[in-house]
Amino acid sequence: MKLILNFGLPLLFGLLFQQFYNMVDTIIVGKFLGVDALAAVGSTGSINFMILGFCIGICNGFAIPVAQAFGAKDTDNMKKYITNCVWASIFFAAVMTVAVGILTRNILIWMKTPDSILDQAFIYIFIIFMGIPATFLYNMVSGILRSLGDSVTPVVCLIASSLLNIVLDILLVRPMGVAGAAVATVVAQAISGVGCLIYMCKKLGYLHFTKQDWAFSMRHCLTLCGMGVPMGLQYSITAIGSVILQAAVNSMGESVIAAVSAGTKISMFLCCPFDAMGSTMATYGGQNVGAKKMDRVDAGLKACIKLGIAYAILAFVFILLFGKNLALLFLDAEETEIIKLVYYFLLGNSGAYILLALVNIVRFMIQGLGYSAFAVIAGICEMVARTIAGFILVPKFGYVFVALGSPLAWIFADIFLIPAYIYVVKRLRRKFGQETPAMLKRCQKSLA
């Protein structure tokens, strides 16, 4: 647990700052530009998650072969994986930027974005998507650094860029509207990525990369894509359900959109520890399976789940006591009905955070062990649950299933992930010729 905390806490601070400057965007837009502008930015949340989640997932997947080679002390393959990460990231960034730029407005229309906020929503998310290369740069470099055991440097770069983003928000939102918030986010992300890249080039100088190391390798690229693409698809498939749920929300009017936007931003901030635990487990699993230390895999999972459950209980109590006060960060006090909607949304989500803890910890561990396809199936489970909520439950029962849509998705994912983890560990133990100790059998049984 001490090792997990030492590695995970810097990741947590980085995620908190990332969400902090995303939240500042929303706060400044809501306070400076009003409810319609807040609704416009909020209406793009699910498509933002779908596209940028795919990019982030690919980069996180690319880092797994690097972590496995590092754990196995295979320096030659580790260098080839690092250099081919660069070539693969350049390709995916170029393709994604062009394709998404062309399709963005049509997707917003399909999502039933109200005409009154459509133009503002398009301007905001189009600028964000033109910054996809910056997203790839930061996440590729930070993923490689984490794979090599450095979770601190990406955080330092992110903190600096977060502070810059806040300053740019204050300077640009009033004169430029929602476009100013988007520009601030893209510039901050780019600076963070460049800072990490400069450090990585200096840090990895001892590896003495040669011209041959930089040569494109189809074998290494296919391995990277075999990890990265399923991980990216897992994010995007999960987000498809969110897009469908967002379309149901968009049909309920600007007030509900604004409430869900504010509630989602608060919830994403509170969920940062779960994201940090997941990223920690991906690296932890990758390094330990590379070193063939399966006993440590089970022990690490159990320790991380304890942390996740403890935090989930604290987060729910916090929302129960202070949820309405948090809504005031985004809304004026006279918006009483919207504030109530935000509070109900937060209660619905935070009441199921234990389920989310299991989703993140178990799924990312499975990915780190090299079984990314199972993570995709878990994403499909989440998509199915959110689709049911968006198409059936929200139209029939109303806002209550807007608040419960994500918890329903976490239930569906956990039903698949827990037995999948037990299967993966047993398979790897047979592969390495290791028996499952009786104590760990009891641990796996308790998880099931």
Strand residue percentage: under 5%
What low-confidence regions span 5 or more consecutive residues with pLDDT below 50?
Answer: none
Mean pLDDT: 84
Into which percent range does the helicity of residues fall?
A: over 70%
Distance linking N and C termini: 21 Å
Characterize the overall form.
globular
- Total helices: the number is 18
Order of helices and strands: HHHHHHHHHHHHHHHHHH
Number of strand segments: 0
Structural class: mainly alpha
Radius of gyration: 21 Å
Let me know the largest β-sheet.
none
Account of the 3D structure:
The chain has 448 residues and is mainly alpha-helical. It is built from 18 helices and no strands. It has helices at residues 2-33, 35-42, 45-71, 75-110, 115-130, 132-147, 153-176, 178-203, 218-250, 254-270, 272-290, 294-327, 336-350, 353-368, 372-397, 400-403, 405-432, 438-447. Helix 7 runs antiparallel to helix 8 (178-203). The protein is globular, with a radius of gyration of 21 Å. The mean pLDDT is 84.
How would you summarize this macromolecular structure in one to three sentences?
The chain has 18 helices and no strands. With 448 residues, the chain is an all-alpha fold.
Secondary-structure map with pairings?
Elements: H1 2-33, H2 35-42, H3 45-71, H4 75-110, H5 115-130, H6 132-147, H7 153-176, H8 178-203, H9 218-250, H10 254-270, H11 272-290, H12 294-327, H13 336-350, H14 353-368, H15 372-397, H16 400-403, H17 405-432, H18 438-447
Helix pairs in contact: 1-2, 1-7, 1-8, 1-10, 1-11, 2-5, 2-10, 3-4, 3-6, 3-9, 3-11, 4-5, 4-6, 4-9, 5-8, 6-8, 7-8, 9-15, 10-13, 11-12, 11-14, 12-13, 12-14, 14-15, 14-17, 15-17
